[in-house]
């Protein structure tokens, strides 16, 4: 059951302040919401290394209760206040809840743990569109999900492909959202969403690096366009960033070089103003009756060519997907995702996935999903499961059965 906290303030007059006399306060609405998602996971390959860094050690099969087969469990508060006409003030706070152990929150862009690690924004909306300030989901994610038949889920989707692109850089551990290629979340972000113009919605994002002495340092920019009309969805995205690899590179070099690590990182060209992060993509999804098909092309590059040894500065990914609404309550989807490393010739990875959803009600569903990945190359560790790394240059199979409830 949705839970609402409604605060209505009508005819509230200030006493003793003439300037406030006769002023009627606007109406506000605050909503508590969330999603709980967990299941049983079996995966035949798990990494024995550090986070998502490609490593040779295979820790073997994992059988576990896993939070997040569709997305991580989360809860949040959102609200808006009518200011007059179409103008509204808004806010949203949203953070992870791990059903496996009861912990909350998650990493932000600086590797610290934030209670509201997914969304912490305030903004304004009106005829002009919507402006949001704060930590928030990047427009990149929504564009990616719109043209993926699997919906960029946490198991067996284009999202896992994006993580694999980042892993291939050898500069992504997974303990923060300041990634090597594209991103899902940004700290210090301003995002503008346009009104729909000719069936197209635009998003423009800017994440400030907050580095003294340089506006460019550690900053990130994004632009997306999504077209929806006549059974078609078309997406285009552009993401660009500076200095994204520096913190991870410094930590990695630090293990071997100690105090000399910063100098080694700088010598490799990994400085806060280096253009180390670019992701572009075009995608399409077509629906007819109970069916849908999708496809997308991605190109991830490090324009500065500042990489760690064995890491990739240029990668490509293409995806294909399909879906079938077997009945109003039963849905089948499948997807294929293939990555090619243009820096380390011959290195490649692929993922095949299929999933079945069964709706028990408007807010509760059961799901069963399976995937297989093939990894070829020392920096290829494509995992079918978000937040569950696998060993590099090694194949894996995974299956998960779970349930999801929203409120």
UniProtKB/TrEMBL annotation:
Where is this protein localized, as stated in its record? Answer: Cell outer membrane
Instruction: Give the superkingdom in one word.
Output: Bacteria
Tell me which positions the record assigns to the signal sequence.
1-26
Which key words tag this protein in UniProt? Cell outer membrane, Ion transport, Membrane, Porin, Signal, Transmembrane, Transmembrane beta strand, Transport
Provide one Gene Ontology biological process annotation.
monoatomic ion transport
An example GO CC term for this entry is: cell outer membrane
The membrane topology noted for this protein in its Swiss-Prot or TrEMBL record is:
Multi-pass membrane protein
Q: In what residue span(s) does the Porin domain sit? A: 15-377
User: GO molecular function, one example?
Assistant: porin activity
Give the multimer and partner information: Homotrimer.
Protein name, UniProt field: Porin
Task: Please spell out the taxonomic lineage of the organism that makes this protein.
Answer: Bacteria, Pseudomonadati, Pseudomonadota, Betaproteobacteria, Burkholderiales
């Amino acid at each position: 059951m949705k839970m609402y906290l409604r605060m209505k303030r009508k005819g509230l007059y200030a006493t003793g302040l003439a300037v406030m006399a006769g002023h009627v306060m606007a109406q506000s609405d605050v909503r508590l919401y969330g999603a709980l998602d967990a299941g049983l996971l079996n995966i035949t390959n798990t990494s024995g290394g550090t986070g998502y860094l490609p490593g040779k050690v295979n820790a073997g099969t994992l059988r576990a209760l896993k939070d997040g087969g569709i997305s991580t469990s989360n809860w949040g508060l959102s609200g808006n206040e009518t200011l007059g006409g179409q103008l509204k003030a808004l806010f949203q706070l949203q953070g992870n809840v791990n059903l496996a152990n009861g912990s909350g929150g998650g990493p932000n862009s600086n590797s610290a743990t934030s209670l509201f690690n997914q969304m912490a924004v305030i903004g304004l909306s009106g005829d002009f569109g919507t402006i949001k300030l704060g930590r928030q989901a990047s427009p990149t994610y929504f564009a990616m999900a719109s043209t993926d038949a699997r919906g960029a889920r946490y198991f067996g989707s284009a999202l896992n492909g994006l993580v694999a692109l980042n892993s291939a850089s050898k500069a992504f551990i997974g303990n923060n959202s300041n990634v090597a290629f594209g991103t899902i979340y940004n700290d210090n972000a301003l995002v503008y969403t346009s009104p729909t113009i000719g069936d197209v919605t635009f998003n423009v994002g800017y994440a400030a690096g907050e580095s003294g002495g340089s506006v460019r340092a550690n900053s990130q920019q994004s632009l997306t366009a999504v077209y929806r009309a006549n059974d078609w969805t078309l997406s285009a995205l552009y993401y660009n960033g500076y200095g994204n690899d520096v913190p991870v590179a410094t930590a990695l070099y630090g293990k071997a070089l100690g105090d000399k690590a910063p100098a080694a990182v700088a010598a490799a060209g990994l400085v806060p103003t280096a253009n180390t992060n670019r992701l572009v993509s075009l995608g399409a999804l077509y629906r007819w009756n109970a069916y849908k098909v999708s496809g997308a092309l991605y190109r991830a590059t490090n324009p500065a060519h500042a990489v760690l040894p064995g890491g990739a500065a240029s990668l490509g990914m293409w995806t294909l997907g399909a879906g079938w609404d077997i009945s109003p309550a039963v849905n089948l989807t499948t997807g294929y995702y293939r990555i090619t490393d243009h820096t380390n010739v011959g290195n490649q990875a692929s993922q095949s996935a299929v999933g079945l959803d069964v709706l028990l009600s408007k807010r509760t569903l059961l799901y069963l999903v399976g995937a297989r990945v093939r990894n070829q190359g020392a920096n290829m560790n494509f995992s079918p499961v978000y937040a569950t790394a696998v060993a590099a240059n090694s194949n894996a199979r995974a299956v998960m059965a779970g349930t999801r409830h929203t409120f």
